[in-house]
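Sample A.
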Amino acid sequence: EIHIKEPIEKEVNPHLLPGELLLCEASTVYKYIQEDGSNRGTYGKLVCTNFKIAFLDDDSASDDNEPQFKNKIVGENDITLQCVDQIYGVYDEKKKLLTGQLRKYPEKLIIYCKDLRVFHFCLRYTKEEEVKRIVSGIVHHSQTPKLLKRLFLFSYASAAPNNTDGRNQTVMFDTLEDWRDELERTKGNVKYKAVTTNEGYRVSEKLPLYFVVPICVSEESILKYEGRGIPIWCWSCHNGAALLKMSAFPKEQDDITSQTQKAFLDGIYKTISKPPYELLKMDDLSSSLPSLQDIQVAYTRFKQLFLIDNSTDFWATDVKWFSLLESTNWLEIVRRVLKKAIEVAECLERQHTNVLLIEESATDLCCVISSLVQVMMDSYSRTKSGFQSLIQKEWVIGGHGFLDRCNHLHKSDKEEAPVFLLLLNCVWQLVQQYPPAFEFTETYLTVLSDSLYVPIFSTFFFNSQHQKDTNTSGESLKTQSAPFRFLTVWDWSVQFDPKAQAFLNNPLYAEKPKLDKSQRKTARFKHQRQLSLPLTQTKSSTKRGFFREETDHLIKNILGKRIGKFINSSDEPPNSFREFYDSWHSKPVDYHGLLLPRIDGPEIKVWAQRYLRWIPEAQLHGGGTIATAAKILDLMEEVQSLQVKMDEEHSQAVSGDVHSVPMLRNSARLSSLFPFALLQRQSIKPALPTSTWKDLEDEDDLVKRDDEFVDLSGDM
């Protein structure tokens, strides 16, 4: 059966943003709704602009079928040029990767996106000239190297009226005052100072204008090696211990240079190891964590599991799911990173030791570990504004090379690595393990990961503060020397209306109670007592929460060996770590105190909302956490309306805006991957492949046989 919407008769024009230009288009393009062999789809127009690739059908013109969670910048059928991962052409049923100049044009186009969407376009009914223009246009604008100033970011900034106040209580850390306030907030101002040594970038272009160092470190020391070998402050714990980071010296140097640098480092270490400073523990992350190349290889394999072409592929890989997942090594990397963050937290919290994270540039894994430690130890970082301020401090101002690591300019694949995505994956583990501790939801994290590829915000499109500053004061299109006014991603009103923004806020967040002055003294004493952990070891089950009593015996047999490999990892934590970890997990959770993630075996999970949201077969209709959230939001709406009535009765004006709560009636109609999987998307589960039925019929053979191992690395 073939389901086809007839070609549209009325003209549908793309919605263009300020500074957006239409570059090429093709009519009578057929988009498959679901590539499952049924050929269901719709005709429309495929366009390419300097911002996005968009498919326009007759639904694009109507507002009747508006989703509840709509992005105002990027529509359901829009792909920003930076979000395109790979493009394949289909020639005589064979897929071929499209790059550079094309000699022959395909009959079908498959676009794989970095947010894991997959688009299938049939060009068989399109005019030949239009096919040439649209295919070469899409490949050229999304896959070839480009100059920084050619990013849509600059076109938009010079054409768009910037009336929004993007701060939204987020501390940007671009002023000296911001750093001093942070020092005061964490009580670090006794031993550490904010410095202006790098004003005008006279120390280094890689360092921010302002940063914090120990009081005893001189300006001369900072200038000596362009900031290398200098401990830079990240955060101070309630007990005075601090988290520091340092950019290491290059390893390949001649003997005289190495000796001079070693003497310099020894002098620095001695200075910051004396009182009033705590003992110092150094941790070279390049030797204790996977390399950026390992992280990139693992993620490349991992994402292939979710870039599904059709239903047949999904069900074929479903049987081998555990072996495929394990062979990517991605979850193991997430586990190792979380374990490292717990080790650092133990040094700060229990041993009262300063921790110095060392990395070649101190802008990659240092950012991941320092951010994770703060999320685990500082409840302020678990609020929305606190988390955003943390990303600004450690990543944006801290100098993480977003431009290179996300490969936005397609300059070098060697520099690409999903370091920021790794952090979001680790934070998601904490969010799903301790939901009441976070003011934001997993939807917030998913949307934040999508925003990496939306080039109207400057937040994720520069390598350093210096690069942004030097490119901000440029000639715009209209005036000779007006500086560009870039938007920040933290102004969520640019992408979402208030109704949609409600999905970013956690209705079950356990807000910290505000104490009056008479209670504060006792509360401080109580806080210290809660955080000092006893040394008694308690035995915890590594499989807790995974195999439930009602689990089928057959499934236990099938998965037992596979899960065992995760649990009995060769990288077993040492005794003091295990003691700290088990002791903390044996107590009730204080949602405003220290949070330690559960990292044993199957506790590390796949971030389902981000990775499975476009696969209809993976959705639970009327189930999942959204069914619970729908009921809670309905209840909140009712409470708010009663509150308004009470206020009206007492004739008291409500101060501030009442949070808009979306209407989520009929939660049975929602899918578990809502709000991304829309209500109208239905999936018909095909019959299982014949080979699978044979396997299931012979239960004994299935139990005895090991899960088939498939190497995703190809010829590597």
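Sample B, a different protein:
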Amino acid sequence: TGMTQPSINWHLKENARDHYTSKFSLEELIVRRGQAFTITINGAGQPEQNLIFIAETGPKPSEQAKTQATFGISSTVSKESWSAVLKSTTSNSVSISIYSPANAVIGRYKLIVQNTSSGSSSTANLGTFVLLFNPWSSGDDVFLPNKAECEEYVLEEFGIIFAGNKHHINSFGWNFGQFQGDILNICLSMLDRSLSYYQDPATDVSHRNDPKYVGRVLSAMVNSNDDQGVVLGNWSGSYEGGKNPSSWTGSGEILQNWKKSGFKPVRYGQCWVFAAVLTTVLRCLGIPTRTITNFSSAHDADENLRVDEFYDASGNHLNRGADSIWNFHVWNESWFSRSDLGPSYSGWQVLDATPQEESGGIYRCGPASRNAIKEGDIDLDYDCPFVFAEVNADCLYWNYDTTNGKKTLMFSESTVVGQFISTKAVGRDDRVDVTNDYKYAEGSTKERDVFKKARKKLGLEDKFDPTAPTPKETDQKPDISGKFKVAGTLEVGKDLKLILVLANLTTDDKTVQVNMTACSTVYTRRPVHEIWKDSVSVTLAPQEEKQFPIQILYTEYQEQLTTDNTIQVTALCHVAGGIQVLVQRDIILDNPNIDIQVLGEAELNKEVDVEVIFTNPIDMEVTDCVLQVEGCGLLKGILEINVLPLKAGEKSRTKFQITPSERGLKYLLVNFSCDKFADIKAHEVINVID
């Protein structure tokens, strides 16, 4: 006999526990591939041996594309294909264990049951479930054997991102929030809004079993270039019409704003925003992912493994050419095997969603095997030359004569780029240095051999390089050396005190004309506003060292500073009869601190008071004070509080309530802004008890 509409029990709680998906809100079954889940069907008709299941996904499900599977009840599970095994029956219900293969397409599936007993056939739609990647299953491309790493790189909703520069590494918390609210649906709609989906939906969906493919598509979708993706980049230092990139504290608000606006790109992002959003999306889908910060990161636009920087006679850093060296750059690593390249290239893969260069006509980058980068195998898919240059490029500094366009090489360096490559430790808030996973020790023969191998693979070894120095130029050694030393504290609101140290390296008197400039920059070292300039003529006796104190007043730089709090100081030294010497330093000024205090025990579902304390450290009033607060499991969405203006030296205490909704260690993130200080960040770990 045919069946009436059967009812289904998805066993949401038990399945979620077995599949490490309990952190999602339980309105739909969310399971991982390569692992069985259990359902109970009431009223599907007898005998259960006649039941046939169909699981299908995408707009045109087909067996051939592996987006549809038809399977009956068998005595044992098949590892190769979808299968169902009977667990138990009662007079009108049947419990079944359904197994998906470890290479199944991920996404939202429809589950259909048919009963073909007694000659007539009837069909019922049981509803939908979502299938994700499974790092806990040894058959999955994303299998990660270490359970603690699975916890961190898939299940952890809080992260720490490193920034600053190589002299001064700082860090801030980020709320990935991959299990909150509607985020899973937004991640699935990102896949359905990609260019590959628009071009050929059925084929695109059939490739979603492959983490390489999914990672590459999403690295394009997180930036808005080409495809109306999630975040619009802006590195100008001026952020009208959107939010300043440094003001975000988590990915949730960005992804939700994208959806709410009808999928219009969210304004604005810079590299860590793109990387953090990609981390959220990939962790949500089950691909182990982390953020990586590279200090002194090269952006080599022309694939010659060299970055050229130009300075005019006054020492101004010119915005010429597409190459640049960023104070830091943040990208992602995701963990999966590379069947296309072979086992030695499996493991961490670099993905970069920041729109820097096109790859195959689209702004996306990766996956590039980290092992391939280390070994110089940069002909392997995808985008290895760009990533290799980010951590290895040589740097050439040129004097550019703006009157006639003549370029003179001042000096070149091969050890500056790619330092202190950093990521958050597993289970702790510490920094872990992974530089040695990207390259052999700077200056070692092995490191230069790898560099030569990479040049060869790019076809650069035999090419005459018109900008490369001829031997006679490089033989000339500079007559003097110089450096900037910091004297005093580097804080926003304080005067900047530096010392320029110049030393005569020769046994003759030297006359030096020193042209100094200071300008505010964004973290990419792109100059934004000139702050100060000065020039001085100096005579140095043989082997003499002289110190020149420099003071830049807060009142001089305050108006010009970008929210990156970065100032580039340059001294271009013209030595009579010798080659020019460039002395340069990127200074990062620290924001004042902000203090978070939880007043009392944090208990599940009970209100607790939190106080945020800020003291205005400067001798003028600060206005337009805004505090924003977020934290998974501690409060819904984002709390925004306007704080009254603060007179010089005044302390503000802002009190608010949170109601924790999850137990365990949770992170509260705060961001405080006012007219004189941008985006002061802090976070506090709160242990929520029952």
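Observation for Sample B: The first strand starts at residue 7 and ends at 9.
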